[in-house]
Amino acid sequence: MAEDDVTEEARRVIDALKQVGEIEDPIERAVAASEVLADYKERAPQLRELQRQAIAALRAQEVSYRKIAARLKISVGAVQNIERGHGSAWGTKSRTKPAEK
Question: Is the pTM of this model over 0.90?
Fold first, then answer.
Protein backbone atom coordinates (compact mmCIF):
# COMPACT_ATOMS: atom_id res chain seq x y z
CA MET A 1 0.00 0.00 0.00
CA ALA A 2 1.41 3.37 -0.97
CA GLU A 3 1.83 5.98 1.76
CA ASP A 4 -0.57 8.28 -0.12
CA ASP A 5 -3.31 5.66 0.25
CA VAL A 6 -3.27 5.77 4.07
CA THR A 7 -5.71 7.97 5.96
CA GLU A 8 -4.22 10.68 8.16
CA GLU A 9 -5.40 8.90 11.31
CA ALA A 10 -3.87 5.59 10.23
CA ARG A 11 -0.64 7.35 9.24
CA ARG A 12 -0.28 8.79 12.77
CA VAL A 13 -0.76 5.33 14.31
CA ILE A 14 1.71 3.73 11.90
CA ASP A 15 4.28 6.46 12.60
CA ALA A 16 3.85 5.97 16.37
CA LEU A 17 4.37 2.21 15.98
CA LYS A 18 7.56 2.87 14.01
CA GLN A 19 8.77 5.09 16.85
CA VAL A 20 8.29 2.23 19.31
CA GLY A 21 10.60 0.10 17.16
CA GLU A 22 13.19 2.88 17.18
CA ILE A 23 13.50 3.15 20.99
CA GLU A 24 17.20 2.59 21.69
CA ASP A 25 17.00 0.83 25.04
CA PRO A 26 15.88 -2.78 24.41
CA ILE A 27 14.05 -3.06 27.74
CA GLU A 28 12.22 0.21 27.24
CA ARG A 29 11.43 -0.84 23.65
CA ALA A 30 10.04 -4.18 24.89
CA VAL A 31 7.91 -2.47 27.55
CA ALA A 32 6.49 -0.09 24.94
CA ALA A 33 5.80 -3.03 22.61
CA SER A 34 4.01 -4.87 25.44
CA GLU A 35 1.85 -1.81 26.12
CA VAL A 36 0.94 -1.47 22.45
CA LEU A 37 0.08 -5.17 22.13
CA ALA A 38 -2.04 -5.13 25.30
CA ASP A 39 -3.97 -2.10 24.05
CA TYR A 40 -4.43 -3.69 20.62
CA LYS A 41 -5.78 -6.87 22.21
CA GLU A 42 -8.48 -4.79 23.92
CA ARG A 43 -9.30 -2.72 20.83
CA ALA A 44 -9.14 -5.43 18.16
CA PRO A 45 -12.76 -6.57 18.61
CA GLN A 46 -13.96 -2.96 18.23
CA LEU A 47 -11.86 -2.50 15.10
CA ARG A 48 -13.18 -5.74 13.60
CA GLU A 49 -16.74 -4.61 14.40
CA LEU A 50 -16.15 -1.35 12.53
CA GLN A 51 -15.08 -3.36 9.49
CA ARG A 52 -18.06 -5.71 9.84
CA GLN A 53 -20.51 -2.79 10.00
CA ALA A 54 -19.02 -1.18 6.90
CA ILE A 55 -19.14 -4.49 5.02
CA ALA A 56 -22.74 -5.13 6.08
CA ALA A 57 -23.77 -1.64 4.93
CA LEU A 58 -22.07 -2.06 1.56
CA ARG A 59 -23.51 -5.56 1.06
CA ALA A 60 -26.99 -4.16 1.85
CA GLN A 61 -26.39 -1.81 -1.09
CA GLU A 62 -25.51 -4.90 -3.17
CA VAL A 63 -21.87 -3.86 -3.60
CA SER A 64 -19.73 -6.79 -4.75
CA TYR A 65 -17.11 -8.40 -2.52
CA ARG A 66 -14.40 -7.31 -4.96
CA LYS A 67 -15.47 -3.64 -4.82
CA ILE A 68 -15.77 -3.75 -1.02
CA ALA A 69 -12.28 -5.25 -0.77
CA ALA A 70 -10.84 -2.52 -2.97
CA ARG A 71 -12.63 0.20 -1.04
CA LEU A 72 -11.57 -1.11 2.39
CA LYS A 73 -8.07 -2.05 1.17
CA ILE A 74 -8.35 -5.68 2.26
CA SER A 75 -8.60 -8.96 0.36
CA VAL A 76 -11.82 -10.42 -1.00
CA GLY A 77 -11.32 -13.40 1.31
CA ALA A 78 -11.02 -11.06 4.30
CA VAL A 79 -14.29 -9.37 3.33
CA GLN A 80 -16.03 -12.74 3.13
CA ASN A 81 -14.54 -13.92 6.43
CA ILE A 82 -15.51 -10.72 8.22
CA GLU A 83 -19.04 -10.96 6.84
CA ARG A 84 -19.23 -14.53 8.19
CA GLY A 85 -18.05 -13.31 11.59
CA HIS A 86 -14.57 -14.80 11.46
CA GLY A 87 -12.49 -11.64 11.43
CA SER A 88 -9.91 -11.09 8.74
CA ALA A 89 -7.10 -13.36 9.89
CA TRP A 90 -6.83 -17.11 10.27
CA GLY A 91 -6.04 -16.64 13.95
CA THR A 92 -9.51 -15.20 14.58
CA LYS A 93 -11.40 -18.18 13.19
CA SER A 94 -12.93 -20.76 15.45
CA ARG A 95 -10.73 -23.84 15.62
CA THR A 96 -13.47 -26.20 16.67
CA LYS A 97 -16.62 -27.24 14.91
CA PRO A 98 -19.89 -26.53 16.71
CA ALA A 99 -21.29 -29.54 18.55
CA GLU A 100 -24.00 -31.39 16.67
CA LYS A 101 -27.32 -31.84 18.43
Answer: no
Q: What is the DSSP letter of 1?
A: -
One digit per residue, pLDDT tens: the chain, 101 residues?
Answer: 455 667 899 999 999 999 999 999 999 999 999 999 999 999 999 998 999 999 999 999 999 999 999 999 999 999 999 988 876 555 555 545 556 65
Give the up-direction half-sphere exposure of residue 16: CA atoms within 13 A in the CB hemisphere.
10
CB atoms within 10 A of CB 86: 15
Distance (Å, rounded) from C-alpha 72 to C-alpha 25?
37
Tell me, yes or no, whether 100 lies in a domain: no
The number of folded domains in the chain is 1
